[in-house]
Design a protein that fits this description.
By secondary structure, the chain is α/β, with parallel strands linked by helices. The chain has 10 helices and 10 strands. The protein has a domain of 175 residues: Rossmann fold (3-Layer(aba) Sandwich). The strands form 2 sheets. It has a 6-stranded mixed β-sheet, with helices on both faces. β7, α7 and β8 form a beta-alpha-beta unit. It is globular, with a radius of gyration of 19 Å. The mean pLDDT is 87.
């Protein structure tokens, strides 16, 4: 499989704290690569460097074979990098269809401040409706975002990010705040997404990680201590120690 995202020897320090310590990992086409680690492991710092919100002190980030270590956030998006966040950032006073339509319009390079013009572009609305029809939000196109459940908002944010047609998607705890049934729905949706984009999944829900991941990287104190398949990570003694003997989480 082709590498779509390559992290090579990435380092980041804040004063005397090494938040990212020579991290290397690869995400390949059609793969879900999970990044796990205890609180304070440095996952958010690493993701922010991949996205371009933080500049690493050393190392390289390659997207679709191109070095983007010093590239802007916008440049990385244009090359195919997508991201969702722990806290959803949706337009609550607009409908589900309008939110997805705005994401598609952004991909087309339109100015969605001029909503009256966007509304006339039937192709955008048809495409947005088609995206919604393939997910659990079917039938909710006219619902205001403010009226959606937390789980539905998570699904909508994912649809909007996918509207940009990313080559690799960074998912920042998509299961956060979801109940069991909502989590199962999200797992199904993420499995379907792998047909369209590679995924780097940052997640604390180990049930979801083990259900979804092809490979897992374990980050502790800014350093990758283990990489491998689900079974390899389950049985790695260093990983069990990092999780303070919480064997139930890894079973």
């Amino acid at each position: 499989m082709t590498a779509v995202l390559e992290i090579d020897g990435l380092r980041k320090r804040f004063g005397g704290l090494t938040a990212t310590d020579s991290v290397s990992l690869v995400v390949r086409t059609g793969e879900i690569h999970a990044l796990i680690g205890p609180n304070g492991a440095g996952k958010s710092t690493l993701i922010n460097q991949i996205c371009g919100e933080l500049t690493p002190d050393a190392g390289h980030i390659r997207l679709m074979g191109r070095d983007v270590t010093a590239a802007s956030v916008a440049a990385r998006v244009s090359l195919g990098l997508g991201r969702t966040f722990q806290i959803t950032s949706l337009l609550e006073d607009m409908t589900v269809l309008q939110n997805v339509g705005m994401a598609l319009q952004a991909r087309a390079g339109g100015n969605f401040r001029l909503w009256d013009r966007v509304a006339k572009r039937r192709a955008i609305w048809d495409a947005a409706a088609g995206i919604i029809a393939d997910c659990q939000l079917q039938g909710r196109e006219a619902a205001l975002v403010a009226d959606l459940s937390h789980g539905e908002k998570k699904q909508l944010e994912l649809l909007m990010a996918m509207g940009l047609q990313p080559k690799v998607m960074l998912l920042d705890e998509p299961m956060a705040g979801l109940g069991h049934l909502e989590s199962q729905t999200m797992i199904v949706q993420l499995r379907a997404l792998r047909q369209h984009t590679a995924i780097l999944l940052v997640e604390h829900d180990m049930e979801a990680v083990f259900a979804l991941a092809d490979r897992i990287s374990v980050l502790v104190y800014g350093r990758i201590i283990a990489q491998g398949s689900v079974e390899e990570i389950r049985n790695d003694p260093a990983v069990r120690e990092a999780y303070l003997g919480a064997e139930d989480e890894l079973c």
